[in-house]
Amino acid sequence: MWVAAGASLWGTDTLLRRPLTATLGSAQIVWLEHLILTLVLAPALWRGRREWRELGGREWAAVLAIAWGGSALGTVLFTEAIRVGNPTTAVLLQKTQPLFTALLARVMLGEKLGKRYWECLGVALAAGYLVSFGWAMARPEGLLAAALALGAAALWGCCTVLGRFSLRSVSFPTLTALRIVAALPVLTILGGGRVEAGWREAGLLAAMALVPGLAALLLYY
Fold it and tell me: Whole-prediction pTM value?
């Protein structure tokens, strides 16, 4: 039920993100999103300082992989995918995350994947296709957009496993704060700088950061 609630909020992301791509670059959008969330999550990061100060090398490696790979690069790839291609196709390809998650969970966490898992996953992927396209053939607008969306799905799928590994050492509010704040330096290099945006863009950015960005992630963790 928690995952379903988080997914419902994530469903609003593309509706908010797509209009922003008309006036802002993909890296800029993700940088501004993380900048807003860093301001919101700074108190949580400070409250959880005892937790993250005690993290070892493996745990820090996992946290940085989540922040740099999933929160920064993965979100930039997804934003670029919906900018250059069909947003529906990008959202559909996002549903391939369980493929990457399951394989890495088997390797890293030792989780067993039985026949029933793959059967249910096959039904879920087919259902996702029908919800997105009905009986029609999907026509992605260019292989680049599809490749970007798949890259984002792969990074986010890996981050799901790394997030579960990290939650053995820190609480979910602290991990959420670490994920966002640690991604900010990388995003500042990619998209930081002068931004030309109006109140409409500011409202979309705030809504995107707080609803599918923060609330959904907290429910998911």
Answer: 0.86
